[in-house]
Amino acid sequence: MGHYIPKRRLPALHAYKYSGQDDSWISANLLSPWWNWLVQQFPLWVAPNTITLSGLALVGINFASLLIIDGGMDCGTSASLDPRRRTENLNASGDKWASVSLFEHWGFPESMKEHTFSQVRCIPPWVFLSWSIGLFLYQSLDAIDGKQARRTGMAGPLGEMFDHGCDAINTTLESLLCCAALNVGRSYWALASVVATLSNFYLTTWEEYHTGTLYLSAFSGPVEGILMICVIYLITAIVPGGANFWNRGIFSLSGIESLDVPALAHLAAWNIKANEAFLSFGATALGFNILASYGNVRKARAAKGLSTVTPLTGLLPLLAQNVVMVAWALGNHGQLLKDGSVFVAFISTWGLGFAYSVGLLIVAHVTKAPFPYWNIATLFGLVGAVDAWLPTPILQSSPQRVQVTVLSSLGLAAAFYLHFCYDVITTITVETGKPCFQVVPPEQQKPKNEGKELSKKQ
């Protein structure tokens, strides 16, 4: 205990107070009444963190269904790489124009263009429906845990840590689920999706560290972003063809190709796949989020007479982690993308490392500690990336050794993150007197070292 929160930082836990601002019209006018009703259905003896963990468990069930049915994301990969499936999907949809990819080889490494497939099992519609319901319930439970904390007098830094930790895990899992629903498989688009979603989450946390306030804009990931993904799951569940729907071109879906206008014929060359068009929109949104987050940081720092440039160095850990993980995935002739089970384990490793990185940042925020520029999680990715780009890889010299390397990294990442969670939770609960999964009366929440701290101040 005390590895991540040293004794000299413990007093800051008692001074911590949550600050948030939500500018979403949907939150204020549509979701808030639902959230206010929902929280009243929970007895006061239910701990806020129990609600948070229950929401994450629903996402875990969704992820488990992906692993059971299409654990290697083979369906979306086959839909793009297998010419027979592309022809079958075009004939089944009745589209006149073939869909077009923005990348060569449909967004896959050249080494996979001759990839052969045996019988591929695709995800049935009811699973996507369950994902939509599960994610919506996750959002609802994530929104009311703070309300329950205030109802029970259990609000504090542990809730902030627990909430962000679960959100970080959910962000990675939803990236994979969304890629399965959009039918992009193990492509470059899957990597881009992970980069975009994790970066958006990191930006929000980075912004909160420097401003002291969690800002949710008029269009934010936790509100509109999640609802948009719920709609994607719902559409995939109800449209003919399921996930193959998203491989159709945007002009085919919009009906433009059916218009008898010769001048529009040239648009056939730009009949971009709907899934790639949607993910391109997400990349554009990331750029706007970067500007918005930095605008809030710049304003807060300028008001205090502090440098408005220095905080930008706090984006370096995110950049480093993204670069090394993408480099690892693309090295060794794209071996990580060829093996489905290894790919999912690799993304999970990336997600745990990211959650560890964000956890360090939240700890620094609630304890007023210096910005955490370094964490060991990035080292795993660096070792894997360097080895993958060697002329002859040492650790990953065969598909079997790639699998061993990735699974070993996953185990190490899980061990580090679990140790982090245990250490931080134990430290905060002992210091504040507020258990993680139990509601206790206010009189029993007296900090253990309150008298000692008061005597120091006197």
Automatic annotation (TrEMBL):
InterPro entries: CDP-OH_P_trans, CDP-OH_PTrfase_TM_dom, CDP_ALCOHOL_P_TRANSF_CS, CHOPT
Keyword Transferase belongs to the record: yes
Record localization: Membrane
Main location: membrane
Transmembrane segments annotated in the record for this chain: 188-206, 226-246, 309-330, 342-365, 371-390, 402-420
Listed GO CC annotations: membrane
GO biological process assignments: phospholipid biosynthetic process
UniProt similarity note: Belongs to the CDP-alcohol phosphatidyltransferase class-I family.
Protein name: Choline/ethanolaminephosphotransferase
Protein's organism: Ceraceosorus guamensis
